[in-house]
Specification:
Helix content: 40-55%
Shape: globular
Strand content: 5-15%
Largest sheet: 2 strands, antiparallel
Order of helices and strands: HHEEEHEHHHEEH
Number of strands: 6
Distance between the termini: 84 Å
Strand order of the largest sheet: 1-2
Length: about 180
């Protein structure tokens, strides 16, 4: 089999018009555009959605793949996640273990990276029961019915409550 030099192939692609198209595709970057609203507050375009805190972790709890995550599935999933997070296998998750675990599955800025999300008794260690209870509590905040759907795990980028809080509070008259 003859070896074809990379320069020959690149030259052929350039002459055939393939190379410029490939270069253009590589340079494309998708950006979420938006325009500042009155007062300089950013507003994203209509229809942009973001994931809820811990959404990917919750999605992994869907054991029967029906698109619904029940409290029973959360209990099982939280137990499996606890086993992964408890690096030294002592039956407790320290703040460091939780931070490391959360960084690997969700990100350091996610609510599940905060040890206070799960450490209800503030003893600086999280038990298996506290871990499961924390996930159930967060799920109840996302959907109070006790069952999450994949639709519950995403939300509009511009929620009305966040837009209102993004603007400064009104100043009292005379100041």
């Amino acid at each position: 089999m003859k070896r074809v030099s990379l320069a020959v192939v690149a030259g052929f692609l350039a002459l055939s018009g393939v190379a410029p198209a490939v270069a253009q595709d590589v340079d494309k970057i998708d950006r979420v555009t938006g325009a500042p609203a009155p007062g300089g507050v950013f507003r994203a375009p209509e229809g942009v959605r973001v994931v809820s805190p811990g959404a990917l972790v919750y999605a992994s709890f869907d054991r029967n793949f029906d698109g619904r995550i029940t409290f029973e599935e959360i209990e099982i999933g939280a137990g499996l996640a606890f086993d992964v997070a408890d690096k030294n296998r002592d039956g407790f998750i320290t703040g460091f273990e939780q931070t490391d675990w959360a960084a690997s599955v969700a990100g350091s800025g996610d609510v599940i990276a905060n040890a206070m999300t799960f450490d209800i008794d503030l003893d600086r260690s999280v038990t298996r029961a506290e871990f499961a209870a924390g996930f159930k509590r967060l799920a109840g905040q996302i959907n109070p019915s006790g069952e999450l759907t994949f639709v519950d795990l995403v939300q509009p980028l511009n929620r009305s409550g966040e837009q209102a809080s993004a603007s400064p509070p009104p100043r009292p008259p005379g100041r």
